[in-house]
């Protein structure tokens, strides 16, 4: 009989790429992860990993087993959701991941509704970049999370996660009032010679801005890296550059900032481990979010 905990380690290795990354994410030592994977290979009776120096990759059989492991873990999530639904009332922690602009605008109202309707539930919020959500959900650091992607920067689906769409929003070009830009019809290319304010390089929003500018025919001259749209707009207001900001990020825009709507969108959805869509606490949070955005 294959051990589910070891199957989860193999699944994490497939997603994270290295034994060290798996160990760091799941609070094991690398040697412990290696030992458990070796035991799994003995249980399976076939080679699941190929070792080439310090690198470890999954064999075709190992990859097939990961696909089966996803199915097994989904069934276990469904069983856990069924048990939670059989209990009377919602209680206990619900670990929620969110990106900053949703934490500032959507999540507070959703939490207020949860507190009123399910006072025994204990929502725990963690701000997290959408690029890190999949690992956090699979590693059980989160139960549910808000994610987003952009035109020019789509996200890759994850087989271990389920999701429900929540909303779409327009993007805006934010520029200091009084700045003219170039005589261009394209609202992004108009600012090809301006300094730009973008998110840090490892974030999806950074990729979106760079690719949008490339499509407009130029590489942005980046002056500032800032991961907070309120701060970004403050910098725009004092003439430090231009930026692209989603609708949720332009709340309380300073009067010194001019906004131009762009033909681009950001899409937001709610993610959870596959099989957990029927968990009553996850469903309650999704329902509260839908009530907020409706």
TrEMBL record:
PROSITE patterns: HTH_LYSR. InterPro entries: LysR_HTH_N, LysR_subst-bd, WH-like_DNA-bd_sf, WH_DNA-bd_sf. The keyword Ubl conjugation does not apply. Gene3D superfamilies: Periplasmic binding protein-like II (3.40.190.10), Winged helix-like DNA-binding domain superfamily/Winged helix DNA-binding domain (1.10.10.10). Residues 2-59 form the HTH lysR-type domain. It holds the Pfam family HTH_1. The keyword Transcription applies. Keywords: DNA-binding, Transcription, Transcription regulation. Belongs to the LysR transcriptional regulatory family. This is LysR family transcriptional regulator. It comes from Saccharopolyspora taberi.
């Amino acid at each position: 009989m294959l051990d589910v905990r070891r199957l989860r380690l193999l699944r994490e290795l497939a997603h994270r790429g290295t034994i060290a990354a798996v160990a760091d994410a799941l609070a094991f030592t690398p040697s412990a992860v290696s030992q458990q994977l070796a035991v799994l290979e003995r249980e399976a009776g076939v080679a699941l990993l190929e070792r080439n120096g310090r690198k470890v990759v999954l064999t075709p059989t190992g990859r097939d087993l990961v696909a089966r492991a996803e199915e097994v873990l989904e069934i276990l999530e469904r069983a856990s959701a069924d048990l939670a639904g059989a209990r009377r009332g919602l209680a206990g922690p619900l670990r929620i991941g969110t990106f900053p602009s949703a934490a500032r605008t959507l999540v507070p109202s959703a939490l207020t509704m949860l507190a009123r309707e399910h006072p025994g539930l204990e929502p725990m919020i963690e701000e997290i970049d959408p690029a890190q959500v999949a690992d956090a959900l699979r590693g059980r650091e989160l139960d549910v999370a808000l994610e987003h992607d952009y035109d020019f920067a789509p996200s890759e689906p994850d087989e271990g996660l389920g999701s429900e769409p929540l909303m779409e929003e327009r993007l805006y070009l934010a520029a200091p009032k009084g700045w003219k830009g170039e005589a261009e019809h394209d609202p992004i290319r108009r600012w090809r010679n301006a300094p730009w304010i973008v998110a840090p390089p490892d974030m999806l929003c950074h990729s979106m801005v760079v690719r949008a500018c490339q499509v407009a025919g130029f590489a942005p001259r980046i002056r500032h890296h800032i991961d907070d749209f309120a701060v970004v707009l403050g910098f725009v207001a004092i003439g430090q550059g231009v930026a692209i900001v989603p609708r949720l990020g332009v709340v309380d825009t300073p009067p010194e900032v001019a906004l131009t709507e762009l033909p681009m969108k950001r899409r937001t959805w709610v993610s959870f481990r596959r099989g957990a869509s029927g968990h009553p606490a996850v469903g309650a949070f999704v329902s509260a979010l839908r009530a907020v955005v409706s």
